[in-house]
UniProtKB/TrEMBL annotation:
Catalyzes the deamination of dCTP to dUTP. This is dCTP deaminase. The keyword Nucleotide-binding applies. Homotrimer. HAMAP family: dCTP_deaminase.
């Protein structure tokens, strides 16, 4: 069941901190409306290096992540250009705390989508998540588009979780960030097994 505005506001004022939905700071009361909460684009970004040597190797990410990325900061009032077919990682201005009985989907705002901007290709926010949300921002249009930190770029739609949830409990790969985080695909246990199967280089 999708939570409506009244339910969202009630959970955001819940007296028990473990059951309270936290989305802060809210710069406008209008960010909570209908059945969603609007979130704004933060000031920190991760850009993929166009000069990276060779393809991205998910297995080498733990030690070679700086070979593929560089960080940038764009203050509120400034703008950053996103070129066609370019992917950058942004972050929400807001810090999110999701109770264990809720989960959320991140959905790009249609006003941005009509300009060719795809937001949050990884769309689920797990029960118990705490931190700012990394946003995958991709320009699918044929022309560049400017990104403005501080503007509403996506919305969170919350659902009640049926049954008990073990949640993140602080052990998730992306728990507690306050800035954008690069892929931690290499942290998956699957990669350790795959690595053992690879033939040794002569």
């Amino acid at each position: 069941m999708v939570m409506g505005e009244a339910q969202l506001r009630e959970r955001m004022q819940h007296p028990v901190i473990q059951e309270r939905l936290v989305v802060t700071p809210l710069l406008s009361d209008a960010q909570v409306k209908g059945a969603s909460i609007d979130v704004r684009l933060g000031t920190d970004f991760i850009l993929m290096k166009r000069s990276a040597a060779g393809p991205i190797d998910p297995m080498a990410m733990r030690t070679g992540v700086l070979d593929y990325q560089e960080r940038a900061r764009v203050e509120v009032g400034e703008k950053m250009i996103l070129h066609p077919n370019q992917l950058v990682l942004g972050v929400t201005l807001e810090f999110i705390q999701v109770p264990r009985d809720l989960m959320a989907y991140v959905i790009g705002r249609s006003s941005w989508g009509r300009l060719g901007l795809m937001v949050a290709t990884a769309v689920m926010v797990s029960p118990g998540y705490r931190g700012s949300l990394t946003l995958e921002l991709a320009n699918l249009a044929d022309t560049p588009v400017y990104l403005y930190p501080g503007t509403r770029v996506a919305q969170l739609v919350f659902h009640q979780v049926d049954g008990a949830s073990s949640a993140y409990a602080g052990a998730g790969k992306y728990t507690g960030p306050v800035g954008p985080e690069f892929s931690k695909l290499s942290w998956d246990e699957d990669w350790q097994a795959i690595q053992r199967m690879q033939p040794e280089e002569m």
